[in-house]
Amino acid sequence: MDRDDLLNWIRRDGSGLVDRFLPSGARAELEGVILDGRHEVDADAYLMFVSIRAMLRKDGMANCDSDQEAGQIMALLNA
Q: Please, which residues have CB within 8 angstroms of residue 78's CB and are 6 or more apart in sequence?
């Protein structure tokens, strides 16, 4: 799936992507960051980012590349 296809999918059904690819410990990690109180976090954006990153990794993308690509996709969604 190329970036444009992924962006279209997220725009149509972002919650479906999160439901399908959200890593098991992501909500607990998010809760820990929120409770820590040192950072302001957009919970929906965080869950979307980690879900996109997990999907890219599942498709075989290297960790550092998936982090960068997920960040770029999030930037495009917010543009």
A: 45
Q: Is the pTM of this model over 0.70?
A: yes
Report the C-alpha gap between 30 and 53 in whole angstroms.
15
Q: 53 with 66: CB under 8 angstroms?
A: yes
The whole-angstrom separation of Cα 79 and Cα 38 is 26
Q: DSSP for 4-69, please give it.
A: HHHHHHHHHHHHHHHHHH--TTHHHHHHHHHHH-SS---HHHHHHHHHHHHHHHHTT--HHHHHHH
How does pLDDT run along the chain (79 residues), one tens digit per residue?
A: 789 999 999 999 999 999 999 999 999 999 998 888 888 889 999 999 999 999 999 999 998 899 999 999 999 998 8
Separation of CA 77 from chain center: 11
